[in-house]
C-alpha cells in the first residue's frame, strides 16, 4: 500500500521532475539534483499542487456568489439575453461582446463549433450565440446561470479572470487559450456594467456624497472609464473624476509575477490576499467576510464608512476558504517572457548597464523582483507626480510596480492612470525628476532593456 501511495504521489508530481530512487523507495525519493525528498516533503509538494489546481479553478470560474448582485439585482443577464430570449432590449451579440473586450476560451469550445467558426457558419450578430457560449462556460471571466431547461439565462456572475486574464488569439482575434494573470487592457468594464437595466445600487451609494446623483449620471461615470480601466475606490469615496476632469479610474494591473512582491495594487492597499478579499467582497460583490477598519474613516471613505464596508459578514461565507488556494495560484503565475524579436537584444544589454548605473533604476526596481523587497511604497513627491490617486488609499503612497512582463500591459499607457503613453515618456519623466542627465542613446537602450524584462 505504501509503495502504491508513493507511486501515485510521484505520478502527480512528475512536473517537478521527482523520481523514485532505485533502492529504498519507501523511505526517500530523489530529484534530479540528487537531493533526498522525504515523505513529508512529498506531502507538502502534493498539497501545493492540489492548492494550485484548486486556485486555478477558483480564479477562472468561481463567482463567490456574486451573481446575486450582477444578475438578481442589476439584471445584467437580461440585457445580455435580449428580449428575444426572455430579457430586455437588443441583447449582446458575440460581435458586440468582443468589441467590449470580452474574450472567448477556445479550449471550452467543442470541435464542431470550432469548425463552424472557421467556416463562417456561426452567426456572431445574434445574442443567442452569446448565450450558447455562456452555456459552454467559454466567455472568460463571465458565468451564465440557466434555468432547469437550460434555455433561459436566469442570472450572471463574474470571476477574477474577467479583469486579470486574456487569450492568446491563437484561434482568432479575441479567441484563444487563456493567459491567466494578464491585465485585461481591452476590457471596457464600465461600459459592460452600464448595460445593466438597474444601476440603482450605485445610485444609492453615490448619493451618500452627492444627493443629486441619478442613474444617467452613474452610466456616464461608468462609460468614462474606457478600455482597460476600473475605479476600485469609486464606491469608497465617491470621487468619479480627477481635478483635471479626467476619469478617476486606473489601469487594470497584471496579476502575474507577484511571488516575493509585498503589495498588489498601484497604491498599496494591502497584500495580495487582502486585495483578493477586498475585491471578492466589495467590488465583485461576492458573499463572504471582509475586515478592514481603515474603511471606517468617514473623511477619506465616506461611502464605505456609512455602508459598513469595513466589516462585512455574510452567511454562508463563499469567499474566505478560497483565498488561500487563490493566493497560491496567483503566486505561481510567472511573468511571461517577451516574444523573440520584440526588442533589440544588443541595445537591451547596454540598457541593463544604464538601469543599474546612470539611470539608478535598480535602487527601487531591485532585480530580480524589480520592486523593493519589503515596504515598496513611495510618496507622490518622491516619484514626481500628483497625489490624487495616492490620497484615495489608506497610506497615501504609490507602489513601486514590478517590471517583469512589462511588455504585456503597455496598452493604455504606463503608471497607474496611463499618463505616460510610452516607455520613452516614462524614462524622460524620471530623467527630469531625478536630474539624471541621461543621453539620448542611454534612454533608447534603457527602453529596450525594459521591453526585454
Set out the fold topology.
Layout: H1 2-12, E1 18-20, E2 29-31, E3 36-37, H2 39-61, H3 67-73, H4 76-81, H5 94-99, E4 104-105, H6 111-118, H7 127-135, E5 142-146, E6 153-158, H8 161-164, E7 165-167, E8 175-176, E9 178-180, H9 189-194, H10 200-206, H11 215-224, E10 229-230, H12 234-237, E11 250-251, H13 272-283, E12 289-291, H14 302-307, E13 311-313, H15 323-332, H16 345-356, E14 377-378, H17 380-383, H18 388-391, E15 398-399, H19 423-433, H20 440-452
Parallel strand pairs: 4-8
Antiparallel strand pairs: 1-2, 2-3, 5-6, 7-9, 10-11, 12-13, 14-15
Helix pairs in contact: 1-2, 2-15, 13-15, 16-20, 19-20
Number of strands: 15
Task: Please list the strands of the largest sheet in the order they lie side by side.
Answer: 1-2-3
Rounded Rg: 24 Å
Q: What structural category do the secondary elements indicate?
A: mainly alpha
| Tally of DSSP helical segments | 20
Q: What is the straight-line distance between the termini?
A: 48 Å
Unreliable spans are 1-11, 13-28
The major beta sheet can be summarized as:
3 strands, antiparallel
Shape category = globular
* Helix content, binned percent: 25-40%
Tell me the β content: 5-15%
Task: Quote the average pLDDT.
Answer: 93
Amino acid at each position: 500500500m505504501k509503495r502504491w501511495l508513493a507511486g501515485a504521489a510521484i505520478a502527480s508530481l512528475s512536473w517537478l521532475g521527482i523520481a523514485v530512487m532505485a533502492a529504498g523507495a519507501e523511505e526517500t525519493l530523489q530529484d534530479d539534483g540528487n537531493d533526498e525528498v522525504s515523505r513529508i516533503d512529498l506531502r507538502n509538494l502534493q498539497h501545493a499542487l492540489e492548492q494550485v489546481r484548486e486556485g486555478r479553478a477558483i480564479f477562472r470560474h468561481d463567482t463567490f456568489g456574486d451573481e446575486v448582485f450582477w444578475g438578481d439585482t442589476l439584471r445584467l443577464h437580461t440585457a445580455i439575453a435580449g428580449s428575444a430570449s426572455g430579457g430586455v432590449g437588443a441583447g449582446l451579440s458575440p460581435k458586440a461582446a468582443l468589441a467590449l473586450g470580452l474574450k472567448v476560451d477556445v479550449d471550452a469550445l467543442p470541435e464542431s463549433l470550432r469548425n463552424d467558426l472557421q467556416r463562417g457558419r456561426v452567426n456572431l450578430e445574434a445574442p443567442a450565440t452569446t448565450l450558447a457560449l455562456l452555456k459552454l462556460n467559454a466567455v472568460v471571466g463571465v458565468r451564465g446561470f440557466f434555468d432547469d431547461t437550460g434555455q433561459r439565462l436566469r442570472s450572471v456572475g463574474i470571476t477574477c479572470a474577467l479583469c486579470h486574464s486574456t487569450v492568446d488569439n491563437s484561434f482568432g482575434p479575441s479567441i484563444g487559450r487563456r493567459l491567466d494573470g494578464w491585465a485585461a487592457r481591452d476590457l471596457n468594464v464600465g461600459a459592460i456594467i452600464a448595460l445593466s437595466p438597474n444601476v440603482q445600487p450605485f445610485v444609492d451609494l453615490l448619493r451618500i456624497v452627492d444627493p443629486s446623483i441619478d442613474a444617467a449620471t452613474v452610466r456616464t461615470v461608468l462609460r468614462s472609464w474606457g478600455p482597460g480601466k476600473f475605479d476600485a475606490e469609486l464606491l469608497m469615496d465617491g470621487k468619479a473624476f480627477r481635478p483635471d476632469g479626467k476619469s478617476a479610474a486606473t489601469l487594470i494591473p497584471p496579476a502575474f509575477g507577484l511571488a516575493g512582491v509585498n503589495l498588489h495594487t498601484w497604491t498599496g492597499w494591502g497584500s495580495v490576499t487582502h486585495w483578493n478579499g477586498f475585491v471578492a467582497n466589495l467590488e465583485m460583490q461576492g458573499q463572504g467576510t471582509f475586515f478592514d477598519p481603515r474603511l471606517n474613516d468617514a473623511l477619506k471613505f465616506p461611502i464605505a464608512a456609512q455602508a459598513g464596508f469595513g466589516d462585512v459578514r455574510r452567511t454562508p461565507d463563499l469567499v474566505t476558504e478560497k483565498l488561500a488556494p487563490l493566493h497560491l495560484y496567483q503566486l505561481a503565475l510567472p511573468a511571461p517572457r517577451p516574444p523573440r524579436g520584440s526588442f533589440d537584444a544588443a541595445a537591451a544589454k547596454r540598457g541593463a548597464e544604464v538601469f543599474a548605473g546612470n539611470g539608478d533604476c535598480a535602487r527601487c526596481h531591485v532585480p530580480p523582483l524589480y520592486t523593493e523587497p519589503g515596504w515598496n511604497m513611495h510618496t507622490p513627491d518622491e516619484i514626481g507626480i500628483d497625489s490624487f490617486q495616492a490620497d484615495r488609499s489608506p497610506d497615501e503612497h504609490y507602489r513601486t510596480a514590478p517590471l517583469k512582463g512589462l511588455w504585456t500591459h503597455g496598452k493604455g499607457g504606463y503608471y497607474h492612470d496611463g499618463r505616460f503613453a510610452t516607455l520613452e515618456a516614462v524614462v524622460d519623466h524620471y530623467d527630469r525628476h531625478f536630474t539624471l542627465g541621461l543621453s539620448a542613446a542611454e534612454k533608447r537602450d534603457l527602453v529596450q532593456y525594459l521591453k526585454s524584462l
